[in-house]
């Protein structure tokens, strides 16, 4: 068995930062209002990470690209059958079901932080883009912003359960792979897995520009 780099450092760092920021957002969103100002800034940070990951999904390293791990319904169903039989097909990057979870989490978090930019509690805090929509739309987005955390927590729970299944049943060390970036395979791929420098720089510049713009908005 050979150790092969699958997840470059930017994927690993952004993944664990998302974990920390999402946890902080859940806590500050349901805690006392004295800490609610942190909720905004944690949301800004999470939005920048999601923006980075979305762009990096098109211009990043091989196994970070959506084109590499998003598969059709037939491939997903075949993988699910293999899971239920206890013999799923191995994948160096995201498996077909894990790929759907990646998309679901990114989409859910985007809707969450996006709706938060327009949400107001009508007392102390108002999203920086609140003045640009009608009351009807603001009401819909506020409802969405309060409902989505529970949906996201369910998705996170499913994600953790899937990781545990791979760790305990399939002996695939996904947690450590997301720390050091390497997986063990019988035959290494011919092409080295590395982050294209221009793709990484471009993704970071867009994400940082987005974060700087948000930071300048009044709340």
Radius of gyration: 19 Å
Helix-residue proportion: 55-70%
SS-derived structural category: mainly alpha
Separate helix tally: 8
Run of helices and strands: EHHHHHHHEH
Number of domains: 1
Q: Strand content of the residues, in percent?
A: under 5%
Amino- and carboxy-terminal Cα gap? 53 Å
Shape: globular
* DSSP summary, beta strand count: 2
- Largest sheet: spatial strand order: 1-2
Largest sheet: 2 strands, antiparallel
Tell me, rounded to a whole number, the average pLDDT.
88
Spans of at least 5 consecutive residues with low confidence: none
Organism: Marinomonas arenicola
Protein name: Cytochrome b/b6 domain-containing protein
Pfam families: Ni_hydr_CYTB
Subcellular location: Cell membrane
Compact overview of the structure:
It is found in: Cell membrane. The chain is mainly alpha-helical and about 220 residues long. It has helices at about 10-30, 35-60, 65-70, 75-85, 95-115, 135-170, 175-180, 195-215, and strands at about 1-5, 180-185.
Description:
The protein is mainly alpha-helical and 219 residues long. The protein has one domain (7-149, 194-216). It contains eight helices and two strands. It has helices at 9-29, 36-59, 66-69, 73-84, 96-116, 135-168, 174-180, 197-216, and strands spanning 2-5, 182-185. It has a two-stranded antiparallel sheet. Helix 1 runs antiparallel to helix 2 and helix 5 (96-116) runs antiparallel to helix 6. The longest helix has 34 residues, at 135-168. The radius of gyration is 19 Å and the shape is globular. The model has no long low-confidence stretch (mean pLDDT 88). It is found in: Cell membrane. Residues 6-181 form the Cytochrome b561 bacterial/Ni-hydrogenase domain. It holds the Pfam family Ni_hydr_CYTB. It comes from Marinomonas arenicola. The chain crosses the membrane at residues 12-29, 41-59, 97-115, 143-165, 198-216.
């Amino acid at each position: 068995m050979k150790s092969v780099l699958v997840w470059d450092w930017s994927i690993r760092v952004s993944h664990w930062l998302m974990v920390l920021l999402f946890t902080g957002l859940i806590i500050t969103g349901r805690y006392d209002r004295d800490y609610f100002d942190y909720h905004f800034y944690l949301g800004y940070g999470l939005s920048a990470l999601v923006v980075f990951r979305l762009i990096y999904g098109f211009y990043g390293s091989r196994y970070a690209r959506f084109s590499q791990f998003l598969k059709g319904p037939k491939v997903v169903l075949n993988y699910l059958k293999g899971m239920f039989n206890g013999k799923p097909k191995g994948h160096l990057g995201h498996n077909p079901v894990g790929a759907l979870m990646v998309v679901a989490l990114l989409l859910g978090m985007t809707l969450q932080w996006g709706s938060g930019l327009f949400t107001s509690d009508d007392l102390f805090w108002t999203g920086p883009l609140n003045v640009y929509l009608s009351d009807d739309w603001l009401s819909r987005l506020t409802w969405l912003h309060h409902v989505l955390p529970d949906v996201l927590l369910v998705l996170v729970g499913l994600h953790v359960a899937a990781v545990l299944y791979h760790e305990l049943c399939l002996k695939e060390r996904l947690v450590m792979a997301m720390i050091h970036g390497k997986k063990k395979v019988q035959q290494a791929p011919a092409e080295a897995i590395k982050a294209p420098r221009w793709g990484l720089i471009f993704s970071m510049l867009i994400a940082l520009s987005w974060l700087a713009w948000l930071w300048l908005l009044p709340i």
